[in-house]
């Protein structure tokens, strides 16, 4: 293995260990020494790859923003609103379940949002998209009209991210399956038949 390959491999190991650390402890609680120890390297070696804790955290928040926007762009023109709702929301949940670095980005984005008193942009964009699609689905009688689109959207977004934040206590489980059941419960046909 060449020196460059070893450096690249170490870089990736630092990213994986950092993602785990940030997901578990958030920005304030993350410890660079623990990250280095987990990788079996020194803190100085970590600094050779990332000049600061901020620079390391920025890797995950920028990736979260990028991937979140990509997931929001998966709305198919001409597809029924309920199909797009499932695609977008399940895409986020599946990514949360399968991608530790994405989860680190979520945790860091929420931590930053809390300290600044604002909702992360990707989350507010997701909420607006879900609200619009719920309204479209209600107009097409695909979803219940018992509640307004804003309430349904806030419930679904809270459920999506609540699954993430309750995962340490409950296990990640299959959030995609749980969310699919929610969409089924809210579907117009299910509410028409008393489900």
Q: Assign the CATH superfamily of the largest domain.
A: Tetracycline Repressor, domain 2
Order of helices and strands: HHHHHHHHHH
| Radius of gyration over all CA atoms, rounded | 20 Å
In terms of DSSP E residues, the strand content is under 5%
CATH-defined topology of the largest domain: Tetracycline Repressor, domain 2
Helix/strand/pairing category: mainly alpha
Shape: elongated
Mean pLDDT: 88
CATH architecture tag of the largest domain = Orthogonal Bundle
Terminal Cα span:
60 Å
Approximate helicity band: over 70%
Provide a short characterization of the protein structure.
The protein is mostly helical and 195 residues long.
How are the SSEs placed, and which strands pair?
Elements: H1 3-29, H2 32-39, H3 43-49, H4 53-72, H5 81-98, H6 100-116, H7 121-139, H8 149-170, H9 175-186, H10 188-192
Helix pairs in contact: 1-2, 1-4, 1-6, 4-6, 4-7, 5-6, 5-7, 5-8, 5-9, 7-8
Describe this entry's structure for a reader.
The protein has 195 residues and is mainly alpha-helical. The chain folds into two domains: 1-51, Homeodomain-like (Arc Repressor Mutant, subunit A, Orthogonal Bundle), CATH 1.10.10; 54-192, Tetracycline Repressor, domain 2, CATH 1.10.357.10. It contains ten helices and no strands. Helix 5 (81-98) packs across helix 6 and helix 5 (81-98) packs parallel to helix 8. The protein is elongated, with a radius of gyration of 20 Å.
List keywords for this structure.
Tetracycline Repressor, domain 2, 10 helices, 195 residues, mainly alpha, disordered C terminus, single chain, Arc Repressor Mutant, subunit A
